[in-house]
Amino acid sequence: MTFRLRTISRDEHLAFIDNLPSASHMQVPSWGDVKPDWRAESLGWIDEADQIVGAALVLYRPLPKIKRYLAYMPEGPVIDWHDTELGRWLHPLLAHVKSQGAFTVKMGPPVITRRWDAATVKDAIADPQAHRLGEVEATTHDPRAFELMERLRGMGWQQSGGGSEDGFAAGQPRYVFQLPLADRSLDEIQRGFNQLWRRNVRKAEKAGVKVVQGGYDDLATFYELYAETAARDQFIPRPLEYFQRMWTALTMEDPNRMRLYLAEHNGEMLSAATMLTVGQHVWYSYGASTSRKREVQPNNAIQWQMIRDAHALGATVYDFRGTTDTLDESNHLLGLLRFKVGTGGQAAEYIGEWDFPLNKLLHKALDLYMSRR
C-alpha cells in the first residue's frame, strides 16, 4: 500500500492528533502560531480508504534574501516509525517540501532508544569513572530504534550534529527525564520518590506553601521569576511576548493544552511553571523560581501538584523534558538532573534529529552558520 501526501486543514490535523494517545506538543496545529517567524503547514498521509494515517506540522524558515527554506518538523512527523516500508512515508514528504522551496529537511522522530532507571542514574552520578550518561549501560533498550537509525542512514538521512558539551542539542533535547504514571496510584508514585523529595513535599505543606493555577494575566508574574532564573542560571530568556503568544495559541486550541502554576508563601510568589498536555502525555515545559525562601521548598510543591493534576487528567507519563547527559560534578546542570532523579522516574534517550540535504551547498552553509552560533 502506498500513501498520498496532501496539505490538510487545521481541523483535520487536530482531529487526527486527538485520536492518538500521545503526540508532541510541537506537532499540534497551534504550535505554528507560537512561531510567527516560520511559515506553518499541516500535512497528512492518506491511505487507500481516504483516511489520514499520519500527520506533520512542517515549519518553513526562509534563508535571508533568497526564497529557499529550512523545513523543520520538531519531534515529528507523527507516523508509524517502525514501518519497514519507511520510504512510503518519507519519499513523498521530501518531494513535497522540495516543491515548496526547501533546501534541507530537519526532523525529530519521537522514538526512544534507551532508558535508565533512577537507581542506575543515581549510581552513575556517584561513580567517579562515569562521565556521561550515554556511556552507562542502559536499563532497557529498544532494538527497533537502532534498526530505524540504520534504515534512515540507508535512505540518505544524516544524524544532526549540534550537541553541546552538556548533552543538549541545538534543536530539541535528545535526553529527557520521564516519570511513568500509567497504572500507578498517587500513593505508589509518591512512594517512588526518594527520601529527600518526600521530605521536601512535607516541608512545603507544613510551611503553608500554596500552589494555584494562573491565567494569561499571571504570565507577567511568571516572567519576573523566569527573568530572575535566567540571570541566575546564565541563559538567554525568551521575551514575555513569547509566553503570551504561546498561551493564546495553545489554550484557544484546547483549554487544557497549556496551564500555568504558581507557588506562593505568605503572599510572596516563589515559583512558577508551565505545563503542556497532548493526549495522555504531559510535559513540564518552563520553570522559574526566586532564590528567596528556598527552605520552604516551593519547587517540590509545584511539581507535586502538577504531577497530581497530570494523573487526574489520565496522563500515562509526566515528562520533565530535557536533561543533561553529563555526570560531571562541576557542571551546574547536574543539580537539575539530581532533582528529577529524586522522583524515581527514568532518563530516556531519543534517536535525535535527522537532516536530509536537498541542496548540499546550501545545507553545508547552514551547518557552518549553526556551528558558529
- What's the CATH architecture name of the largest domain? 3-Layer(aba) Sandwich
Number of helices: 12
What global shape is seen?
globular
Distance between the termini: 44 Å
Widest sheet, order of strands: 7-6-15-9-14-13-12-11-10
Q: Given the helix and strand composition, which structural class is it? A: alpha+beta
CATH topology of the largest domain: Aminopeptidase
CATH class of the largest domain: Alpha Beta
Write the layout of secondary structure elements.
Blueprint: E1 4-7, H1 10-18, H2 31-34, E2 39-46, E3 52-62, E4 69-73, H3 87-99, E5 102-107, E6 112-117, H4 118-126, E7 140-141, H5 143-154, E8 158-159, E9 175-180, H6 186-191, H7 195-207, E10 210-214, H8 219-233, H9 240-253, E11 258-265, E12 268-278, E13 281-289, H10 298-312, E14 317-322, H11 333-341, E15 346-350, E16 354-357, H12 360-371
Parallel strand pairs: 4-5, 13-14
Antiparallel strand pairs: 1-2, 2-3, 3-4, 5-16, 6-7, 6-15, 8-16, 9-14, 9-15, 10-11, 11-12, 12-13
Could you explain how this protein is built, in words?
Residues 162-169 have low confidence and may be disordered. The chain has helices at 10-18, 31-34, 87-99, 118-126, 143-154, 186-191, 195-207, 219-233, 240-253, 298-312, 333-341, 360-371, and strands at 4-7, 39-46, 52-62, 69-73, 102-107, 112-117, 140-141, 158-159, 175-180, 210-214, 258-265, 268-278, 281-289, 317-322, 346-350, 354-357. Helix 7 (195-207) packs across helix 10 (298-312). The relative contact order is 0.17. It is globular and about 60 Å long. The strands form two sheets. A nine-stranded mixed β-sheet has the order 7-6-15-9-14-13-12-11-10, sandwiched between helices. The longest helix is centred in the middle third of the chain and has 15 residues, at 219-233. It folds into two domains: 4-108 and 353-371, Aminopeptidase (3-Layer(aba) Sandwich); 112-142 and 151-350, Aminopeptidase (3-Layer(aba) Sandwich), CATH 3.40.630.30. The chain is built from twelve helices and 16 strands. The protein has 373 residues and is α+β, with helices and mostly antiparallel strands.
